[in-house]
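Subject: Interface between my chains keeps coming out wrong

I've been trying for a while to get a sensible model of this assembly. When I model each chain on its own everything looks fine, but I need the whole thing in one frame so I can look at the contacts. Pasting all components below, labels as-is. Any help appreciated, I'm running out of ideas.
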Amino acid sequence: MDKSLRVWVESEAGRCVYCGFCEPVCPTLYPGGHRGYGPRGRVNIALNLVEGGKPTEEVLKSIYSCLLCGACNLVCPAKIDIVSVIRVFRALMWRTKTY
Amino acid sequence: MARRVSEDLIRLLSRDKVIDDPDIVRLYAREPSGISSEALAVVFPENVRDVSKIASYAYKNNVPVYPQGSTTDLVGGAVPEPSGIIVSFERMNKIVNVNILDSTVDVEVGVRLGDLNVELAKHGYMFPIDPASVNIATVGGAINSGAGGLRGAKYGTMRDWVLRLTIVLPDETGTIMNVGCRTTKCRQGYDLVRLIVGSEGTLALVAEATLKIAPLPETMATALAFFPTLENLFEAYREIKSSGVQPLIMEFMDHETAKLAGEASKSPINVEGHMLLVSVDCNFEAVERIESWLRGVMEKNGAVKVYTSKTIEGAEPLFTIRRSLFPAQVAIASELYPGRKKIVFMDDIAVPPSKILEAVKVIKSVSEEKGLKVSIGGHIGDGNLHPSVAFPLDDDTIKKKVLEWEFEISKIAVELGGTVSAEHGIGLRKKEFLRMEMEKLGSVKALEIMKGVKKIFDPKGILNPGKVV
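Reply #2:
Try treating it as a single job with all components included. I did that and got this:
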């Protein structure tokens, strides 16, 4: 099951074209202080780490500061389900005890 | 080396202004063009003194420096290649002063254009440069790339709207310089402001700017029309352009692209052909006359369907399809290469408005010859077209074809009297194309002059190296 979830995250997050249209609507980007606190950053962190690797403290802050509000989902031109990517990536990290 | 540089930068600035976590740094070493690289660290200056310290450090230690806004660049202009320090201006995001009497605004360059317009709207003003990425693009990114946008038909590009700049030079002390004036009329010797605008961060680090602002229009007449043929559409275009009326916005999308954009935006408007969208800003007394004139021109030239509006608010639904050009291009790419990582390759050329029909036709035939599915949209009021194709990252054959296509398109633009880049810049992707353009103009010497200018500003060549020339 974990494998199918990993494949799903790869396929969903892999559609990101890096346009950044999701960033202006994200409530955590400005308070966070860098791109890792916005949807573009989180989706690509998930994509980079979904196959494994120990997340750093900064990565954990990025992934767990997402409010799952879904504002980014509404504006993504590639129609990526960003909220589900974050939610599934959290579950995978929990299961594989990478944090 | 990365560790030493980040430790130095932390000592120089402070811990919270430096990111050296590779997973976060990687997010800044990539852009939508598909070009990516590696960087040593990302720094977040909070004022011009921080910028000066960074520039001085980079000069003394021969480390490349890459200024960045929100990295929406499409030509590789913000990629850290070779590796170096990325200077992200996102925390320099203050709107310092709005001066209505002077029609200016002072800003730090990390302010997003969308946020700037929200603030200016409170005063009944706007900043007219509106690229498709207006909500995310920063003032600094727009200055460095020489951005334009939908309102370019009337208001031009960034070079027409920047009055004054605070810049930092990559030298021993990180010299801070103010260039330009707060006045529209300004003969301050050679025009360094316009040299910096569009220089893609290769000459100086831009920290602050004084921009001109424009009053929000009282109202506007808008017509959205669909034509059965390109010839019909361009007859209407020619008539409007030759009428003496200066449209605020004049946008084009080919039939298929408009159709997909309509679907992507869930617009209730039925796309029935090639799309022409025209807005003319005017006063309340004139709006009825202009709206009726626009409708008449469209219908006379064979439009199968025309939607019009006499208010700014009423025009919003008519803009939905055009605003979804990029989502449509992403949708086309997703249909072509489902489930594969892909790049949407949006080109940016300009031709004289009189050559626009010819340009669209040749772009279509070149794309067909190469077996590439092209979508075409653009700001045709100023002759700027954005043909777009896509390729999957795992297919080198299609990628090669796309790169050849892009060169062909640029050649067409130059042959028609236009240019290889209207508003996106040269970056890494179009350096060869720029050389081709200058060769065709018999002006290769200009490239040597540009390299000489670069050397004066940046003697060690550490500022966004390898870009433009």
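Reply #3:
Confirming on my end. Chain B has 16 helices and 19 strands.
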